[in-house]
Amino acid sequence: MPIITAFENSPDRGRGQARDMRVRWALEEVGQPYDVRLVSFAAMKQPAHLALHPFGQIPTYEDGDLALFETGAIVLHIAERHAGLLPTDANARSRAIAWMFAALNTLEPPIVELGMAMLFERDRDWYAERLPMLQDRVRTRLGELSRRLAGADWLNGAFSAGDLMMVTVLRRLNTSGLLDEYPDIAAYVARGEARPAFRRAFEAQLAVFQAASRS
């Protein structure tokens, strides 16, 4: 049974934003049972964890003698070995993988930069001037994504690993107000969140936070 690592006490406070959510969701979509090893922030910087993740982050994935880090690599590994997250047609399969890369390399960087500024830079003198620039960078990508969706339920026909990765990236905007400006993208995210596999993964991650809060 695969083992993934997750925060012992997640800084996202149970909102399903920690990156192990992507791996949990993928495993739930394909019906693969898994175990979770919770790690503290201190343990993440110790040799045992660094042997799995050289940058001292989560999640990691272990299955037999295979150890992986980076959510894109882990989700792709799961999708390639189980039916349900990649199309069988070769071209459609490649397009779904391309959307995984687009989510991580094109959408996520400006979204994370905006989120970090909103969390940690509010008291800086230049915050008010910088914020609109960061928001407009995200708006540019959301506008491009909206044109690509063009009213479709998913990015490339049926739901795929590309959608899974894209929805988890876009959910980082849930408290920014920007998704309200793009109703079609907000509906796209809501469709992802409504999937039973997403709900199972979300509840599993939330339960960890709730247990940590009670301790």
UniProtKB/TrEMBL annotation:
PROSITE patterns: GST_CTER, GST_NTER. Keywords: Transferase. Residues 7-86 form the GST N-terminal domain. Residues 89-215 form the GST C-terminal domain. InterPro entries: Glutathione-S-Trfase_C-like, Glutathione-S-Trfase_C_sf, Glutathione_S-Trfase, Glutathione_S-Trfase_N, Thioredoxin-like_sf. GO terms for molecular function: transferase activity. This is Glutathione S-transferase. It comes from Bradyrhizobium sacchari. The lineage of its organism: Bacteria, Pseudomonadati, Pseudomonadota, Alphaproteobacteria, Hyphomicrobiales.
